[in-house]
Amino acid sequence: xxxxxxxxxxxxxxxxxxxxxxxxxxxxxxxxxxxxxxxxxxxxxxxxxxxxxxxxxxxxxxxxxxxxxxxxxxxxxxxxxxxxxxxxxxxxxxxxxxxxxxxxxxxxxxxxxxxxxxxxxxxxxxxxxxxxxxxxxxxxxxxxxxxxxxxxxxxxxxxxxxxxxxxxxxxxxxxxxxxxxxxxxxxxxxxxxx
Length: 194
Description:
Blueprint: H1 13-33, H2 38-61, H3 67-90, H4 96-118, H5 129-148, H6 155-193
């Protein structure tokens, strides 16, 4: 009989936060594309960014890291990024080429998943700090670019900051992707030698 470890936990505060973030993805898309309730969409997007930071902080502080959490957190991040890219690109808040750059990195990494699995490694490599920094930059960029698309005293400042975070985030996102490819190659190389 297998003894369950703390890593097997499902019901933890960080996992609940990640699940709530996942449930917010279709709501965000509906708010942006349906009634165009930009204020509520912006609040939801900011809450998602805050909960992304909070679930990791709580998981470490309360010793509630888990296998499910390591899967849920990056999935929630990717889905929020994809939903935000889709919504903001369809609303012409963000140019299509920026969305293509960000999605292109995820496509490149997804192509490596079958290779990793064939060599006995999980669907995702451990999240690197650089990947978290890139995601944080993008999650800051999106609400700022959203604010920049409106009229008001804040639009110019939001545009400058939003584009700065978008450029930094996209660069870091690709850099983290390159590190994941290198990490994957090292794992496969080590497994082949063993």
